[in-house]
Design goal:
Elements (H helix, E strand, L loop, with lengths): L9 H7 L5 H11 L6 E5 L5 H9 L5 E6 L2 H13 L5 E5 L12 E7 L8 H11 E12 L5 H13 L9 H4 L7 H10 L3 E13 L2 H12 L10 H16 L6 E12 L4
Parallel strand pairs: 1-2, 1-4, 2-3, 4-5
Antiparallel strand pairs: 5-7, 6-7
The structure holds S-adenosylmethionine.
């Protein structure tokens, strides 16, 4: 299994994927009910769209820190923040599994779609719990197990018919990502001590061509689902089979973006 790095796809992610998640970002900002003076941490802030939506709601005394493992993502987020003149945000390279802040410092922690990619999800949640103040709020968004369902179905079909090309049937498993159901996700969040306030799934669908679909998926996982194939001819065949499986829908292909939201609080004591 390959660990997915977002460094090579940062630019593609910021143009092909992040804008499609805008309604998710606005939904999360709405659910947070910010008062304006909060200290907010965004974990896995990527190119910074969610962070900047939050920063827009902040007033004097409020600020947002974004951390991300991928330096190219940090660079993009800084560039966008500077372009739009935000002076209440900072973006730094940082690891969700070892957050470089003291205990009990943030009023709000958010994380949008970084959770599926971390190798130790319990430690991720324990770190969030540690840096949140008692009474602080946590807004977690994570790819639901319905996300990119059309690609996953095509992959399953092709992998079952061609076991020599694909060792397993779930493309996200091949890149070390875990897609969660709403119940699984909220159970994990509750397990570290959070009180769950709300949980729901938000899905959108739009028509798309097979080329654009593959571009969209590759802007996240960079064809890492083919990285076990060292032979170029095999890679080309595998790529073509996946394309054909998507193209079979013949003009009816849609892309499903779907994420689970969990809004939780750290108890006061
Ligand atoms: C799918 S992108 C999401 C970016 C942004 N939050 C959004 O919703 O558009 C996942 C991000 O999480 C970051 N990430 C993955 N593992 C991480 C970790 N252990 N610590 C910090 N960031 C991480 C990746 O580098 C990537 O930028």
């Amino acid at each position: 299994m390959r660990i997915n790095s977002f460094d090579p796809v940062a630019q593609a992610y910021s143009t092909k994927v992040a804008p499609r998640r805008f309604s998710q970002f606005l939904t999360l900002v709405h659910e947070l009910e910010l008062l304006g003076h909060e200290k907010v941490l965004d974990i896995g802030s990527g190119p910074g769209e969610l962070s900047l939506q939050i920063a827009r709601q902040l007033e004097a005394g409020g600020f947002l820190h974004g951390i991300d493992l991928a330096p190219n993502m940090v660079r993009l987020a800084r560039k966008t923040a500077a372009l739009h003149g935000y002076n209440n945000v900072t973006f730094q390279k940082g690891n969700a599994l070892n957050i470089q802040f003291n205990d009990d410092v943030f009023d709000v922690v958010v994380s949008s779609n970084a959770f599926p990619w971390v190798p130790d999800r319990l430690l991720f949640l324990q770190e969030v719990y540690r840096v949140l103040k008692p009474g602080g709020r946590f807004g977690l968004v994570a790819l639901s197990n319905d996300c990119y369902r059309e690609f996953c179905e095509a992959f399953r079909r092709v992998s079952k018919e061609n076991p020599d090309l694909f060792p397993i049937h779930k493309p996200f498993d091949l890149v070390g990502a875990k897609l969660h159901s709403m119940f699984e996700l909220s159970r994990q969040v509750a397990k570290v001590g959070f009180q769950i306030q709300k949980r729901f799934v938000l899905s959108t669908q739009e028509p798309i061509t097979p080329d654009d679909y593959l571009d969209r998926v590759n802007a996240i996982i960079n064809e890492n689902y083919l990285s076990h194939l060292t032979n170029n001819k095999q890679r080309t065949t595998a790529r073509q089979l996946l394309y054909n499986a998507l193209a079979r829908r013949n003009g009816e292909l849609k892309v499903t973006e779907s994420s689970t939201f969990v809004i939780a609080t750290k108890p006061v004591s």
